């Protein structure tokens, strides 16, 4: 195999790695925008969470204070946080699965995880 052919293969490989890196970065940007909202069956409580399950908003129907006791309200909030967190986790997995089908999602989405730390830096041959 000629030296020029080796360089062309190496250039092609670097190009493919750079394209995959860019796709993963775009996926990361999309993942940061994910959110999910869960609403209780009675419509009294809605909770919105972000991609890591962080609570972004809690909304109450104005009638809630006449219908639910404090303990019922608390239980409803916790339940909606759980539902929304599960929903956003499924959306995150769906977003990432095409690019990284066997990735251990639960291990990656811990606190302070950055996709960029797993990616090779773009380079040239």
Automatic annotation (TrEMBL):
The keyword Signal appears for this protein: no
Cross-referenced SUPFAM superfamilies: YbaB-like (SSF82607)
Gene3D superfamilies: Nucleoid-associated protein YbaB-like domain (3.30.1310.10)
Gene Ontology MF term list: DNA binding
Keywords: Coiled coil
Statement: the UniProt record of this protein carries the keyword Coiled coil: yes
This protein's name: YbaB/EbfC family nucleoid-associated protein
InterPro entries referenced in this protein's UniProt entry, alphabetically: YbaB-like_sf, YbaB/EbfC
Organism domain of life: Bacteria
Coiled coil stretches, renumbered: 10-37
UniProt source species: Nonomuraea zeae
């Amino acid at each position: 195999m000629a030296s020029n052919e080796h360089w062309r293969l190496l250039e092609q490989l670097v190009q493919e790695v750079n394209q995959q890196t860019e796709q993963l970065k775009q996926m990361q940007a999309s993942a940061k925008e994910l959110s999910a909202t869960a609403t209780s069956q009675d419509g009294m409580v809605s909770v919105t969470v972000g991609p890591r399950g962080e609570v972004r908003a809690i909304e109450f129907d104005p009638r809630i204070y006449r219908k639910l006791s404090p303990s019922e309200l608390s239980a409803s909030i916790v339940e909606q946080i759980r539902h929304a967190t599960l929903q956003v986790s499924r959306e995150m997995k769906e977003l990432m699965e095409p690019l990284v089908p066997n990735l251990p999602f639960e291990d990656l989405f811990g606190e302070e995880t950055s996709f960029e730390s797993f990616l090779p830096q773009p380079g040239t041959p």
